[in-house]
Amino acid sequence: MGRLGSSSATRSGWPRSLLALLVWGALLLYAVWPWLPGRGRQARPRTIIVYGFSILGDALDRSVLPAFARHWRAETGERVEFVTSFAGSGTITNQLIMGVPAHLALLSLELDAQRLAAAGVIPAGSWKSLPFGGVVNRTPFILLVRPGNPKGIHDFADLGRPGVQVVHPDPLTSGGANWALLAEYGGTARHAAPGHEREAGTAVLRGVWKHVVAQAASARAARTQFENGFGDALVTYEQDAVHGNGDKEKKKKSAPKWEIVYPPSTVLSEHTLVILDKNATAEERPIVRALAAFLWSDEAQKLFVANGFRSVRDELNGANPAFGKIADPFLVADFGGWKKVKKDIVDGIWKGEILPAIGK
Amino acid sequence: MSIVLDRLSKRFGSQTVVSRVSLEIEDGELFVLLGASGSGKSTVLRLIAGLSVPDSGTIQLRGRDVTDLAPQEREIGFVFQNYSIFRHMSVAENIEFPLKIRRVPAAERTRRREELLDLVGLGGLGGRYAHQLSGGQQQRVALARSLAHKPSVLLLDEPFGALDVKIRGQLRRNLREIQQKLKVTAILVTHDQEEGFELADRVGLMDRGALLEVGHPETLYAKPRTLFGATFLGAGTVLVGRARGNEARLGDLALPIPPEVEHEEGSRVRVLFRPEQVELGTAQPAEGAEAGRHPLGKGEIVEQSFLGALRRLRVRLPPIPGTRQAAPAPYGEEGLLVDVVQPAEEPLPGPEVWVSLRGWHILAPPRPRLLICALPAPAAYPPVLPHLVEAVDAVPILLAVDEDGDEKGTEELRTAVLERAAAGGSGALDGAEVLVRRGDPAAEIGSEQAQSLYDFVVLSGATGPVVGGLLDRLSTALLVLRGDKPTLQRILICTAVGEPGKADVRVGGWLARRLGAEVTLLHVNVRIGGLGGPPEPWVQSHLDRGVATLRALEVKSRSTIRRARTPAEGILAEAAEGQYDLIVMGRHAPRRGPLFGAKSADITLRILAGTKTSMLIVPADE
Amino acid sequence: MTQKTKPRKAPGEGSAVLPVSLLLAVLVPLLLMPLAAVFVFAFRGGFKDFLSALTAEDAQFALRFSLLIAFLTAAVNAVLGTFAAYVLAKYRFPGKKPLTIAVNLPVAIPTVVVGTSLLLLWGPIGLLGKALAPLGFSPMFAPAGVLLAHLFVTFPYMLGAVKPLLDELEVTYEEAAYTLGAGKWQTFRYVILPALRGGLFSGTLLTFAHSLGEFGATVMVSGNLRLRTQTAPLFIFAQFEAGNVEKANAVAAVLAALSFAIFFFLLRWSGPAGGRTQGH
Q1: pLDDT tens digits, C75-97
Q2: In this prediction, does ipTM exceed 0.90?
Q3: Considering CB atoms only, which of B89, B103, B127 is closest to A5?
Q4: Rounded CA gap, A289 and A275, in Å?
């Protein structure tokens, strides 16, 4: 009595249910294909897990990590594979605190590394013992304006002019936006009369924020808004502008929707490497160390440059013709480090004075 | 016998749904279980089918005890009120389902299916689905399906309940035909009295879990034993009068009580007359002049309705002294209501009519109700209790009183009481209603007794102070059971001249007859101030009258006279010598000064304290 | 006054032009245009680009992994949900009401919260996870964790599809089968299960579809590991974040097409009596 009660019920339904079965079967087969037994899989290579903030995705996945894998194979004969995950720097930091088993992470803000240390994920200050204080690469903050620069914008201060509409990432959620704040403030403050730095920087910052018409959650989302025709100017990473979305073909086809304006003085954002030793086994540790060291090698730094990042070693930056000239680049260290900047500029001036003043 | 049910009981939580139902059904019989909704009739059917498990009792189908078998193993057919046709199967597949389960070969299945489809008149509809059939057709499919595996017993649970009246009649006739053709034993459950009468070989009447009456429809209609039977099976008037001699008295009207109806002198008698047994006239009928006409009185027509062939009338009579109405339910009106039907073409008599009876029926006396009290829960009920309950065919109600009023104890207490009741093993207390009260035992028992009338209040165990409290409150016989004798064989009835001598002999005798016990009648001759003497001659004649009363009840009895300084002393001496199982005493209504200045309660309590024998304390007639 | 001579029309009798165009006016920008935009962007670089974006290793992995998790989730919850529905519909027990609410809770809780709560229980710093991690059992940031999250989030869909049918299926159908000789399993197999067919079908499809599109809980528990725990929605999000809009859109288009197909199935082929002929 195999099919009690359905002998005559499905007579006309047969071809259709057969078709459905075939469709679902094919879908299932497609899904499990890589896991099917007998699909000659090699011995499992070592797997290193790397977390990075969003814009590093292409550079690491396509260039730097494969290059390291080749080196490692040549040197030791061992195959190494990478599992990567890219998201906003803050998101990654939260995930690391939650316990994701990453071996290495590249953060866009040193502040995030400090958060990790505070949560006990890494030893406090451990990144400082790495070359260049843990900074792997940099990228300056620049302005994007409409083709032909119709509003005549040449510096952050120009954003405060009447009739300019600014698209800006939100400093509450975006690491890049924090860098942008520092760029806007610092570019002017550095050149103000002694004793009037704060006054001058605050004035520029107020001017910019009076004209912010859209705050996006991330630098990436801000650019998308700008690309879609919103606003006259966008404050963002140079890497984002020169490397674009990694699809150079496309840019050739369509006319550019914007052009880059280099302010005379702007900050170079610095991207910090942290090593999560506690997540690595004894066998994995040498690879992790080797990879960390490799990131500062000539080869890796050149690859970063090719991907639009500026190397920590200035002599290599000439390789990318897209990089523009910045008269007076500065670093967060010039303003006392991220802790101080966060306290004085982001929280003190931007959140404490400007936001209440402009009623946002 | 196709179906034998023996003392079947079922509780849901603390509610008894089926209470000691015993029933035997012949091969090929169509038995109808009739009752209102909630009467437990469907539960009986489900117990037989194995869809529900009885708490006690046994079920036999064709000589096989199936009490512990699963429904699948009972070889029954069951038809549900909602048809329960499997919707994803065609009619043919539905009917073949039990055969497929039994791995019957396909050819045989097809043959059987066609046969059944023809039998229920659905030939050619095998390919349809439930949603393509009318309600009546679905019910036919359900019937065919339930018969497919040739069950020994067919059970039908309100099979026509969801159908139109017109279709119902036709389906009933079909069902009867099919049942007789296949000679399958069937039980049909319904609340529809007309349906029951039309279909049944025999009808069983259920009320509140109990099977009250079983009989042929005509017998049940004409001669019900119970008030419920009288009122549930059609209209009728029930008046309550009193038995005097061998007649039931309703005011001036005296109706002979047939010998098969048990009754006691002076007890209440319930008289039923059906509407068609009542005759209306414009003139006062001369009593006895017209044979078989018994005039009831003159009344006025208060309601009338035309029913086609018949006309229904309701007549109100002025109150008749010593007569009370039991049915139709009086709505707090003065006077008595009598229902009448007469052929519609008969002229309607004037507003004032004379009512007389062409026929009547006297109901059996109601089963005595026993309130069995435990304080708070008994270690065990006395062994004699089940015997007593069975002997007097009583309705037992178990009351537990929790003096401490412990909140969480209620359910535990209830469970404990039920466990103890079941521990007796005889099943006499199975399915008994259980009440749990909190507070002072005497007060709680008294208020419970006042709320719903009991015939006996039964106490057991350590009862001393409670009895004292109860004697002031009760107007019912109080039975105090002590010791662990399994029966009550020797009964001592203590009469005192001048004491109320009638109730104790009557109640004691009634109990003795049912228990098959011997009775000794005792009179204590009290010597005053040491002066003695032979008993007065009227003492002996008083005792002789008692013995005669007992003889009339067919109770073996003797009488004896003792001398003593006080009545209590004499009774205690006789009790000690005579090895009695039960002492019966009469008692005045509370707080009336008895003979010799001693309160009767004091005598009772003194005797209670002086012996270890069980006692029955009977309140005196007013 | 001419109005009065005009006969009144009941709903459904009048012209459909106005109500239908109103509905379209709402639906087109709200639902249809965004969907269309995904396809437009996916193919903006031409079909070759679309194909190469789609056949990239990580895109393929994300799609396969998403499908695999959806199949597993649907299979497990089909059984689990049916069982839960059966227990909740057929048995009476203390605490049934709070339990009924509890099992339906996942639809009401934001999926991100579900992810967080799973992390706080099973994660390396979680209540249970802390104790189990030394035993080599740590489901978070691994495929098992993704499955766990999907089972959690989609649990109510099966229940919701099957329980109403069971509630409606009176106990007498089971009892009828018993009295006809069918055992417990036979009754379930031949009476109850077929009666639930429509619900099982739509419940499984709904579960599958929701699992395929799940994002909030997955992003929390998976660690978003490329080629290991990255589902298709996570892939789309990650690629979008990284600026690879075309790559994101290619997978998004496939996902949208798949969901569309599933709901097409759901609407067209659902219903237990769908394929039944009228007998004669």
Answers
A1: 999 999 999 998 888 888 888 88
A2: no
A3: B89
A4: 8
